[in-house]
Amino acid sequence: MLRNSKEQFGWVSIGIHWLMALVIFGMFWLGIWMVELEYYDDWYHRAPWVHRSVGMLLFFLLVFRLGWRIANPVPEIMGAWWEKIIALWVHRGHYLFMFAVIISGYLISTALGRGVGVFDWFEVPALFAADKGRESTAGFVHMLLAWGFIAYIGMHAAAAMKHHFIDKDITLLRMLGINKQRGEE
Amino acid sequence: MKFKILLGSALIALGLSTSAIAEDFVIDKKGQHASINFKIQHLGFSWLIGRFNSFDGTFSYDEKNPSAAKVQVSIDTASVDSNHAERDKHLRSPDFLNVGAHPTATFVSNSFKELGNGKAELAGAFTLNGVTRDIIINVNHIGAGADPWGGYRRGFEGFTTLKLVDYNLAKANILGAASQELELHLYIEGVRQ
C-alpha cells in the first residue's frame, strides 16, 4: 500500500522517512568532514559539490514529502493527550528544521547571486539578490541549525525508543512497515 | 595705498602657502575612486585576483615638501571579495584572515621618499591578522589637479608584496609553494579637504 491510512503508514511515507534519515546523517557527516579538507585533497571540490547537489535534491523531496503529508491521512499518535500534542509539534518541527537547514545552505552558495548546480544535471537559480557577506552569516547559521537538527533527531529517536521499549506500542514498528498489534497478549 | 596692496597680496600669499602646506586628502570612498586589490598565484598556473571593498584613509602631501607626506589606511578585512561566495567565507574564517578576531588591517606610514620620475617609496607599518610588519610600498604618482566639481584631487598607485607566513595566516601553507606571496595593489584617489 502506497498511501497512508488512519491505521498505518504507506510505503511512500515510510520510504521517504528512512531515505531522508540516511541522507541527513550522510549530509551532516559530509558537511563536517568537507570543511576540514586540505586544499590539495582530491575531495576538496568534489565533496562540497556533492553536498550542494544532494541538498538541493533534498529540498525537492522535502516539498514533495510535505505535499504527501498534507494529502494523506496520518495514523493516530499514541500516548497521553499532552504527549500527542508534543509529538505533533515535534514532527512539524522536523519540517521547519529541514527547510531552515536547506535554505540556509542555499543562501551560502547563492550569496553572490549565482545559482547552485545539482551535479552536472541542472542548476537551481539564485532567487535572492546578491548580498556580499551573506555567505559568512548564512554559513554560521547553517552550521548551528545542522547541529541543532541532529540533536533534535536524537530526541525524536529517543522518543521512538521510549514508545517501543517502555510503552511497548507500535509507533516504531509501523514506521518500519511492520504490521502487528502489541501488548494485548 | 601701495602699502595696503602689498600687505594684501602678502596675506593672500601667506594664505595660499599655508593651505599648500596643509594639503590633507581623504580617500574618495563615496565615489569609489580607490581600490585595494590583491593578486596571488593559483597552484602556480595563474593569478587569482581579489579586493577589499571597504576601507578608509587619509593622506597628506605637499609638493614642496614631499618627504613630510603621511598616509594612513584602514581596511575592513571582512570586505574581502574574490568573486566567489564560498571562498570569501573561507578567507574570512580563522583559517585565513580571522576577521572575527581581527576585523581591521591598517597601514600607517613613517617615511616617504621621492625617487624622481614620478616614482616614490613609502615605508610604514602594516598590520594584518593582528601582526604588524614594516613594509615598503612602491608608489607611482598618477596625477593631481582641480576636478570639474570644485574640488582638488590627487592620485597614486602603490605596489607591495607580502609574505603570507609573516602574518600568521593559519592555513596559508595549504595553498602550496607557489602561493606563499601575495601582491597588494593600491589605487588611491584623495579629495583635498
Give the ordered list of helices and strands of chain B: HEEEEEEHEEEEE
Classify the beta-strand content of chain B into a percent band.
Answer: over 45%
Low-confidence stretches of chain A: none
What's the helical proportion of residues of chain A?
A: 55-70%
Helix vs. strand class of chain A: mainly alpha
Strand runs of chain A, count: 2
DSSP helix count of chain B?
2
**What's the overall geometry of chain B?**
globular
Q: Determine the N-to-C terminus distance of chain A.
A: 27 Å
Structural class of chain B: mainly beta
Mean pLDDT of chain A: 93
Secondary structure: number of strands of chain B: 11
Q: What number is the mean pLDDT of chain B?
A: 90
Structure description:
The complex is a heterodimer of chains A (185) and B (193). Chain A contains five helices and two strands, in the order αααββαα. Chain A has 185 residues and is mainly α. A two-stranded antiparallel sheet of chain A has the order 1-2. In chain A, helix 1 (11-34) runs antiparallel to helix 2, helix 2 (43-71) packs across helix 3 (81-109) and helix 3 (81-109) runs antiparallel to helix 4. Chain A is elongated. The model of chain A has no long low-confidence stretch (mean pLDDT 93). By secondary structure, chain B is mainly β. Chain B is built from two helices and eleven strands; from the N terminus they run H-E-E-E-E-E-E-H-E-E-E-E-E. Chain B has helices spanning 2-21, 85-92; strands spanning 24-27, 35-42, 46-52, 55-60, 70-76, 80-81, 104-116, 119-128, 131-146, 152-163, 181-192. The longest helix of chain B is centred in the first third of the chain and has 20 residues, at 2-21. Classes of the chains: A mainly alpha (185), B mainly beta (193). The interface between A and B is medium-sized, with 16 and 16 residues.
